[in-house]
Amino acid sequence: MKKYLYKLSILLLVVSFFGCDLNSQLEELNVDTKNPSEVPGEPLFTNGVREMFDLMNSTNVNENVFRLYAQYWAQTTYPDESQYNQVTRNIGRNMWRTLYRNTLKDISGAKEIISLQETVTPVEEAVKKNKLAVIDITEVYAYSTLVDIFGNVPFTEALDIENPSPKYDDAATIYTAIIAELDAAIASIDPANVGFDNADPIYNGDMAKWLAMANSLKLRLALRLADVDPATSKTMAEQAASGVIADNGGNFGIQYTDASPNTNPLWVDLVASGRKDFIPSSVLTDYMNNVNDPRRPIYFSDPSGVYSGGVYGDANASSGFSQIGDIIKEPDLLGTILSYSETEFLLAEAVERGYAVGGTAEEHYDAAIKASMDEWGVSTADADAYLLEADVAYTTAPGAWKQKIGSQKWLAMYNMGFEGWTAWRLLDFTGILVAPPDMSLSDIPTRFIYPIEEAVLNGAQLDAAATAIGGDLKSTKIFWDKN
């Protein structure tokens, strides 16, 4: 009997042990490892910025048409986007969704999680502050882009899942708020410590580069305000000028890879798709031919060495013209959305406006052009020769300073279509962009109309926003676009 009880005790102990283990295994089976209930802040940040960069670098006509709006490229079979049709493909909706849902929602989630992380050492606290600063800088970039595309947009009530009808805030007021957010982020950065480290697909946690980028973004926003709030613009530009991006190694861009799914979206649209939807526009090729621009064999591909583009706004044949340059089709091309070249053009503009940012307008103008040449692999000798062209040299190039700086900035922003289009909106240079067939120059959009689904889901707030900006029209100007 004792022997039996002993064996029974052992059996119950074994059952109890394996029963607990079995329960644990069953609990693990009920956990969806592909959709975890708790997500660390770092991958949320990584995904959010990747979505933003993919959108701004893409040339998919369903989500990014800015290379077309800047008239760098023409289309072949379907020229709707070059004729400024903003409705049929829901382009505005896709930009809106990407920036709000995929970027801002993810990075706001990252901010919430990281802000709750406990720190023990001063270094841990510095790293945490750096991460939060990086999130804020990215948030400023995303909101400024939304404003620059649409005008008034949801801001103070955005991202709240409890509020399906957020109000649209005044665009100028949003700028004021995000500039304050950017200033706070700049002040909190500790360049001696890292930020997101390997979770940062842009600078790999290098906070000195993030600090230079943040100052360059501040300079960009400052010059956006130049015609509507010159005092604020001047103060901001002078504060930022000494800390901006100083070489192409600091360009704000993601280094894509040659392996899917981490390729540059341009490669997906131009190569992997097998489509031939785009060719260089004659607007760009003709202008570059006239000034003997040495970037032509890089921007374009043509065995003849004679560069010609298609008619902008028309349905062109894919053959018989130069093609998009091979470097643009590289899967691992750096996806830049704020560059050293742009920063130098902004400084040249600031000098012409009387801001104390150091140097002369000509020095910054020359540096901007040389930065673009270097970015695309043009030799120093060819860059220097280009600057001696009568229509390029700052002292002899035609037009006032806005024409000189604007036209060369437009050339340099070739792979940053949004800034190319914005340079035209801000600096009002003439004689370059053309009207599509049977259209006029006034038909070139100065903004995107609001997404159609907003009329259904948030109609009252959209109507109020449309009234506030002067009408939900392609021709309505963003608040900073006054001249």
TrEMBL record:
Pfam name, any one: SusD-like_2
N-terminal signal peptide: 1-19
Keyword set includes Lipoprotein: yes
SUPFAM superfamilies, A to Z: TPR-like (SSF48452)
Keywords: Lipoprotein, Signal
Keyword presence, Repeat: no
Protein name in UniProt: SusD/RagB family nutrient-binding outer membrane lipoprotein
Organism: Ancylomarina longa
